[in-house]
Design brief:
Keywords: Signal. The relative contact order is 0.06. This protein has one domain. The chain is mainly α.
Length: 65
């Protein structure tokens, strides 16, 4: 019984700060849910969508998606 109590207490102590950290992701300056992604990947995707760049690999190396 003591082992179970200790295990539950340890799980609570570990999980509580993690939950607080996740909650902080939605506040300034991060705002992950509402922030617009702006990085090299999104810039490349925008250029691909606008047909400014083209894949030069053989067709058998391209993944359709």
């Amino acid at each position: 019984m003591l082992r179970l109590t200790f295990s539950l207490l340890a799980a609570y102590v570990v999980a509580t700060p993690a939950a607080a950290q996740i909650d902080g992701l939605e506040r300034e300056p991060i705002n992950y849910k509402t922030a617009t992604a702006e990085n090299a990947i999104t810039a490349l995707q925008r250029r691909i969508n606008d047909r400014q760049v083209k894949c030069t690999h053989p067709a058998d190396h391209v993944i359709d998606g």
